[in-house]
Amino acid sequence: MSKIKDKYKNINGVLYKKCTKHNLYFPEEDEWFPCTKEYFYKVNTNKTDGLFPYGKVKEWIKNNPDKLKGYVANHQSHNITKKEWEYCKQYFNYECAYCGLPLSEHYRKYKGERIKSDFHKEHVDHNGTNDLSNCIPSCTSCNSQKWKFELDTFYNESNGNYTQERYDKIKQWLNEDYKVLKD
């Protein structure tokens, strides 16, 4: 029951639902929206209200890139081969480059179950290239926390996962070592 209370609230007779993704993209904005199809997609698996847990925020981002304050709306996928991605993960010992979480312990929730998943191909510089020179493996948690921040703003001594060794390895990869497969 408390989980439902955390996701819904009644304001002046109107049922509001919390968008579970809104705060990720717009941390300074309210994440509560009227519980209607105008703000949330319909889904048959949700027996409570028939609406998806996060709203149409991705659609809004796609249609309003000019209104995003510093966030790269059209975040591109990396243009790297499977061999390059494998090499990148191997270089970082199959661990998140930021926190060191092993790939073997990397899970995500899918349909209410924890399943093993690959790391995120992290764009270290959001305005940078989509090739191997701007790609490191990142766990879901670190990827979400880094969000739009520059490397030195996110990953420094105030970050609980920071180590100088991992920072140096990230910089070495970005500045030089990614080139091994290119030569």
Strand residue content: 15-25%
> Residue share in helices?
25-40%
Distance between the termini: 58 Å
Residue ranges: pLDDT <50 for 5 or more in a row? 69-74
Radius of gyration computed on alpha carbons: 19 Å
Would you list the SSEs in sequence order as H and E? HEEHEEEHHEEEEHHH
The average pLDDT value, as a whole number, equals 80
Profile the largest sheet: 3 strands, antiparallel
Number of strand elements: 9
Give the overall silhouette. elongated
Overall number of structural domains = 2
Note the quaternary state here. Answer: single chain
Strand order of the largest sheet: 1-2-3
Number of helices: 7
Structural class, judged by helices and strands? alpha+beta
Blueprint (SSEs and pairs):
Blueprint: H1 2-7, E1 8-11, E2 14-18, H2 22-25, E3 32-34, E4 40-42, E5 51-55, H3 57-63, H4 82-91, E6 107-110, E7 113-116, E8 120-123, E9 135-138, H5 140-146, H6 151-154, H7 164-175
Antiparallel strand pairs: 1-2, 2-3, 4-5, 6-7, 8-9
